[in-house]
Amino acid sequence: MQLTRKQSEALNYLEDNSTNELLFGGAAAGGKSVLGCYWLLKSCLKFPGSRWLMGRSELKTLRESTLNTFFEVAKMQNIKSGSHYSFNQQLMSIRFVNGSEILLKDLFQYPSDPNFDSLGSIELTGVFVDECSQITEKAFNIVKSRIRYKLADFGLIPKILLTSNPSKNFLYTRFYKPFKEKTLPGNMKFIPALLTDNPNVTPHYRENLLQLDLISKERLLFGNWEYDGDKTALMTFDRITDIFSNSHNLGEMFISVDVARFGSDRTVIFVWNGLTVIEIITLEKKSVLDVSNEINRLKNNYNVPMSNIIADEDGVGGGIVDFVGCKGFVNNSMPVEVKGQKQNFSNLKSQCYFELADRINKGEISVKTEDIEVRNLLIQELEQVKRKDIDKDGKLAVIPKEKVKELIGRSPDYSDTLMMRMYFELNPQNEGVSIDLLSTMFH
Length: 443
Hints:
Elements: H1 5-14, E1 21-26, H2 32-46, E2 51-56, H3 59-76, E3 85-88, E4 93-96, E5 101-106, E6 126-129, H4 137-145, H5 151-154, E7 160-164, H6 170-180, E8 188-193, H7 203-210, H8 214-220, H9 237-242, E9 253-258, E10 266-273, E11 276-284, H10 288-302, E12 309-312, H11 317-324, E13 327-329, H12 348-361, E14 366-367, H13 372-383, H14 401-408, H15 413-420, H16 422-426
Parallel strand pairs: 1-7, 1-8, 2-5, 2-6, 6-7, 9-12, 11-14, 12-13
Antiparallel strand pairs: 3-4, 4-5, 9-10, 10-11
Helix pairs in contact: 2-3, 10-11, 12-15
């Protein structure tokens, strides 16, 4: 088996004494899976009794794709099943005759197992995650934290190999952007691999990629990490991530609350100083009384006027509004008039999301939090703020919550809490506030 130049470069990093994290990839057919499988195979044979993880977001895809690549790589190296290793389909593990083992794991973050308790107290010698863009940063951090098995015995350091096509998620902010800006830490490496780096790819495969839509072609053929996103999206990825580093836009104190609905266990509360979120509270499985008490505590602690507190009034939220005595936000209510003029939005929620998008794109919203999970959830939710029916004339609207829940597997609680704050910017009683609605957007 002959490695490509890029694969050889990556393997050198995987076998040095300084690189802990390596992202390899970009375009399709750059040899990503082959590299990961070769590294695991070589490591298992070299270090008897070691334990490695081969992971992907879904076990089914791992079994049908990455595992088959492993079998092909083993065959090319004349490593035979039954003689050198055995595959246990029930346990989803590959066991070598020298005692080394590769565990095949599903790394999707299921709502029923948000902390990946299913991984137990497993200890690993090294990790390979294929198509890492499909897992969350929390999954990455957890499996990375498990790399400690027999490292001293083998004279190794913790290493994790990630392979992926371009994606605007934590890989972009953690690897690609610092790589581009030449600020990537010395223990982290990124190797862009393109289709043209792989001499084994047939011309027909390239022709197939050329037939893809523009964005898919930029990602999968040219390995472009800066590809334009969905044209219906109201905010760019960079502007969304900027909210965590924007200058603080301070002013009056506010509180916005997204209340847990029936079938949901999470209530989210944001405390605002002007347009800056200064505290985020997440309450799990709390009663109406408990939530009301927490809002009142924050109100007193930050001296927030009752008229500057707003809570989602739909469903259970109506009880919160009654208990606290704050303003109620009804998502499907009429949009508010601005300077006496009616606005072209389907409802209040859409109006506030368009206003939020405008302010985020202008760098006016700031969120102060060191909680990585909250950051990632908020980024993911804001990426789903898209215009509904972009090709149709009529009132401006965002895609409904039900559709967002289908896309991300949960309710967009954090972005909704951010959105409700815009009510106070749109309210005509707030004199002196600059209003710049996107009322002519897409026309």
